[in-house]
Design a protein that fits this description.
alpha/beta; five-stranded parallel beta sheet
Length: about 150
């Protein structure tokens, strides 16, 4: 998978069955410089994740029809193991118990969500993934090994 350009806004897949809340959150995220795609239940989210490009971040509600947020998160991580995951829920203890085994762990925000904290954590997670991807790329300026001298 080729990393996105640093100039391009990060793509968030936002999954929530409460469409009014989801649209409001999407608008706030877009105002903060993110690109947002919206899925209104777990099945739509899984279908979207099966297409490229895989989003840079998954923000999902926990309780939804067809597939809960943990199922969506597990599927997303099967495609991209380092994908930052954020779960928005009124049931943080249940999410913590069901989300065991997600490495790295999902970040859980209790509803009603503190948008300022969520936005800051989203930005930090994108920067962390971008910097680790940049470290993994070989530097174009670094010369390769010198050839061994040819005996005369």
């Amino acid at each position: 998978m080729e990393p996105r350009s640093i100039i391009e806004e990060p793509l968030i897949l936002l999954v929530d069955d409460d469409i009014r809340t989801a649209r409001l959150l999407a608008r706030l995220l877009e105002d903060d410089g993110f690109r947002v795609e919206l899925a209104t239940d777990g099945a739509f989210a899984i279908a979207r994740l099966a297409r490229t490009p895989v989003p840079d971040i998954l923000v999902t509600d926990f309780r939804m029809p067809h597939a809960d947020g943990i199922a969506v998160a597990r599927f997303a991580r099967s495609l991209r193991p380092d994908l930052p995951l954020f779960v928005l829920t009124g049931y943080p203890e249940l999410v913590a118990r069901l989300g065991r085994g997600l490495v790295p762990e999902a970040v859980v925000h209790t509803k009603p969500v503190d948008y300022t904290a969520l936005s800051a954590e989203l930005r930090s997670s994108v920067e962390a993934v971008s910097s680790s991807a940049a470290r993994a790329q070989p530097s174009a300026a670094a010369p390769g090994p010198l050839p061994s001298p040819i005996p005369a």
